[in-house]
Amino acid sequence: MSSTTNSHPSPDLDRTPPKEPELPETAPELPETAPETAPEADSTPTEAASDADTAADENAPVGADAAADADQDASADVTTDADASLGAEETAEAPPAVRGWRAKHPGAARSVTCTVTSLAAVLVLFALLMPNEPDRFRPAVFLRLPVEAIFGAAVLMVLPKTLRLITAVLAGLSLGAMTVLNLLDLGFNEFLGRGFNVVLDWVLFDDARTYLEDSMGKAGAVGVVIAVIALVIAVFALMALSVVRLANLLARHSGRATRATLVAGTVWVACSALGVQFAGVQFAARSTAGAVQNRVDRVQATLKDEAEFAKIAKKDAFAKTPPDQLVPDLRGKDVIFAFIESYGRSAIEDPVTAPGVDATLDDKTAALTKAGYAARSGWLTSATYGGSSWLGHSTFLSGLWISNQARYRTVTAGEHLTLTGAFQRTGDWRTVGIMPGVQKNWPEGKFYGLDNVYDSRELGYKGPKFSWSTMPDQYALSAYQRLEHGKKRDKPLMSEIILTSSHQPWAPIPKTIPWDEVGDGSVYEDIQKDGKKASDVFYDSTKVKEEYGRSIEYSVTSLIDYVVKYGDKNTVLVFLGDHQPLARVSGDDADRDVPISIVAHDKSVLDRIDGWNWTEGLKPDDTAPVWRMDSFRDRFLTAYGSTPHP
């Protein structure tokens, strides 16, 4: 640090002391009584000189700074260090009230200055080193040397004051943006098993808001939204202020900063070349640069994928198949395609959930056998994980891999044949959808080939919501029986049913009741009040697994009990999970497999899929085949006699 920045420059001992100035012959008369306190001046002459010297120091070349530092080191009466100098300069620039406080409490002022500067440095380093995956959050990650900090310091030191300020603000805002995106990545990885897509995923915020309203009420959702907005603003503001503060510190002490930057750069290069690691982590870090490059690559890949998928979606092996050549072996059957929310492989295999779920599957297999039904089960790999159920539904029904929102928009805007649409095309089935999770207009019903869609507003439910789920599964099936399945018809029925009681946060969970007591759903008032609170379950790693398992047991029980009670010899049920539950339940390394089962009273229906090597009953074995979910449509259509016509 140049000695010109000291409030009291030390004398040069090698020079002859200057002569004392001669005093005037007569001194001005002083007032007899001086005021008790003189008004505080904005700055002392010493401070003004210090400011002028500081400005000159900022514009001086690096060599001059080094020389000045050398002179300072040789001085015998240095009375302040870098922190004290920083405090003095900040005092000179502060408002009068602040200057007065700092003058009265210099020790406390230095402590505050050092603390604020340290916090700014910690915040910037945290942003530069922050990982975007939950399992990478560990102390060693934050004990690395980021190359971005070294490069940024070098750039800021050589810029003039105005340009330095602008650059520091822009750098801070950029770090704020990266921090927010990393936080989004953490959330998406936790819930959906993937990072945030800056091109496609903005639309999901509206779904998140709706989910919060459904789970916490409107007031709670508004509170969360306000808190999130405030957090984002705070991140941007604090990051910008932190970088500006550090940039000014570098400029005031450019000599020392230059040497420190050169040393840090040398250490980074050496550690990078030698592959030095600390606690299993590379010490020489370039996290932010890598994250930026990764996001750029993802944007480019997304835009390229949209164009390529548009071409893929136009190809369809059954696009021109005549109606009489579609599913001829299921003529006269009432076919139900049912999705159970979050019914994943972990429900059957996780040590916490498996005992209850497996016992339910065994029990319901026995109930089906007793009623004259049989079942076969296998595995499908879903295109989504933890959420975005509509991607799983569309993948299963369209025969296309719908792994993101762009693909979903593309396929639903086209005319690609769906599994449900194949039944409609024949003209031999009435096709309906039971969608208790849909709470507004759903134009996709036309794409899926459904003659009529019953959403949550049209099912006649008068009971309470169960967290996100608008109604219990048993009620949705009871309404299906009342509105469609139980009526006299001149055609068999093909139905798509979405069951939602196993949707997170898995509390409260409904209870199975006698079918003749379901009524309009009012009976669920007491059941809902007696259930567990989501806040008591969702954040407990053991309880959330237990309640997730119970929700799957409830959904499977409701569905199979419905078939046993209301099905007949022409009933064919295909049911599956749409995706695995989030990582908190299924685990960080969980696969994306979900169970699928086909249930039928007519033995010939299951004979058609003997070649699939599926497991008998409702619980697939570990050795059962695992197929990608998009392959099911063509396998099913082919198994039941459909003739391909590309």
UniProtKB/TrEMBL annotation:
What is the protein name stated in its UniProt record?
A: Sulfatase-like hydrolase/transferase
Residue spans making up a coiled coil are: none
Q: Which residues cross the membrane?
A: 108-129, 141-159, 166-184, 219-241, 262-285
Biased composition of type Basic and acidic residues is found at 11-22
Q: Low complexity bias located where?
A: 24-67, 75-84
UniProt KW keywords:
Membrane, Transmembrane, Transmembrane helix
Is Membrane among the key words of this record? yes
Q: Where is this region: Disordered?
A: 1-100
- The reply on keyword Disulfide bond is no
| Annotated organism of origin | Streptomyces tauricus
